[in-house]
Amino acid sequence: MLKLRLTELPRGRHPVAFPALPEEPLPAAYAPLAAVARFGAARGEALRLDGVLGGRTAWLIGAGPPHPLRLEVAGALAVASMATDPEDRDSTPVRQAVIDARGLDPDAVAQLAMGAGMRGHRLPNLSTGPRRDLRRLDLLVDDAAAAAPALARVEAVLRGVGLARDLAAEPANRLTPDTFAERLTGLRKHGIEVTVLGREWLERGGYGALLAVGRGSAHPPRLVVLRWRGEGAPVALVGKGITFDTGGISIKPAKGMEAMKGDMAGAAACAGAILALALRRSPTHAVAVLAIAENATGADSYRPGDVLRTASGRTVEVVDTDAEGRLVLADALHHARGMGPRAIIDLATLTGSIVSALGHHRAGLFSNDDILRDALMAAGDAVGEPLWPMPIGAKHRRDLDSAIADLRHCLPVGGGGPGWAGKFLPDACQAAAFLREFAGGDAPWAHLDIAGMDLREEGVESGAYPLPPGPSGFGVRLLDRLVVDRFER
């Protein structure tokens, strides 16, 4: 994690960035060269200036036009500009840099810090070569004491996002279901209660869907419960934690399968959100129920045509073993219902269908409660993790009727009917209809299909500003903001 420090005095000769607001005049030291270069703060561009501050490298960072996240964008651009290009092995690494935030109020300083921290986070790198990342960023402010509380809140959220990103970046041979659960036990030092439920407990409890998905792997499944004890009934977060997804017997194509190490991004986001709540000492009672398994092929793998008895007692006909996420979530949702929550929100990289519908621009949002739906959308817009409401129609549920079980968990490929259009399935909507059966109607529920938003790829933007390629931590900031706006007020 990039270390952030408030200071009122410039120190050293490290590179410095000045966030330029279009509506404010530039400092006299920068203005002449900026005019020569035709620098436009409203265009959100970065301009390197050598010689204006002695031997120090300076950057002008255009904040762009008025926008709720423009200072975050500026913070991210500042870090990206000042850090050495990691591909340029001949350049000298920049280990420390400065953002000149004098003249900005504490909230604006916090926004700069959030963008800088998101952009400057160092993902796990198993290379034997030296790291070339920016390690520390000083925020030059007028009053460090006044800015400290807002920065502390930002750092709590950044640590939660960093946890989610780091977990999702781990190779599957390093993050098996058991090591995932073990990593989560480390959250106890922050006051989070961690309960790890293993195969024997799951068998006694009848968690047949989660057990079936994990049956083909040498690493048995786990159900992990994280609890931050606050006031009242808990807000329940439910996460899909498939540490690697081969597709099972309905095996995936080889192309792109390596990305399936990140199929636990939903569980990682829930864990990161709980950490953020704990670090900022949220008064809200929150739990996370994480269904963790590896969907592997083996002699005991579950099969298409099997009928599974879930923890709720409902039976499910298996159609496609590559639709495993909704199965593990079914048992996790049932477990969460038993905790008497005031709301349930599940997150999962669930379907390719939602990527076809929304691309890499928004995550899909399904809900049985208009108030929770609107609160989630507002929270997502506020932090740059936008959602789009999607339907669960009566036909979507009828499509899951089964002749041999209470319901089936998906339709077969090409099961949309005769003709050319029949090969296109509203799988994201059908998956949500399936999950709704297990979420019940006792509490408001929402399902976030975050496929397409969990990874940043070169040339494919899925956020307000660029991040390094790899896991994005999507969902942590959204959930934290939801708790602040909906459950802490």
Summarize the structure.
The protein is built from 14 helices and 19 strands.
Q: Which tags fit this structure?
A:
489 residues; alpha/beta; eight-stranded mixed β-sheet; six-stranded mixed β-sheet; 14 helices; 33% helix
Notes on the protein architecture:
The chain is an alpha/beta fold. 33% of the residues lie in helices and 21% in strands. The protein is elongated and about 80 Å long. The two termini are 30 Å apart. The model has no long low-confidence stretch (mean pLDDT 94).
Please write out the topology.
Elements: E1 3-7, E2 16-20, H1 31-36, E3 46-53, E4 56-62, H2 70-82, E5 96-100, H3 106-120, E6 136-140, H4 144-169, H5 177-185, E7 193-197, H6 199-205, H7 208-214, E8 222-228, E9 231-245, H8 265-279, E10 284-295, E11 307-309, E12 315-317, H9 325-337, E13 343-348, H10 352-358, E14 363-367, H11 370-383, E15 387-389, H12 394-398, E16 407-408, H13 427-439, E17 445-449, E18 455-456, E19 470-471, H14 476-487
Parallel strand pairs: 1-6, 2-4, 2-5, 5-6, 9-10, 9-13, 12-16, 13-17, 14-15
Antiparallel strand pairs: 3-4, 7-8, 8-10, 11-12, 14-17, 18-19
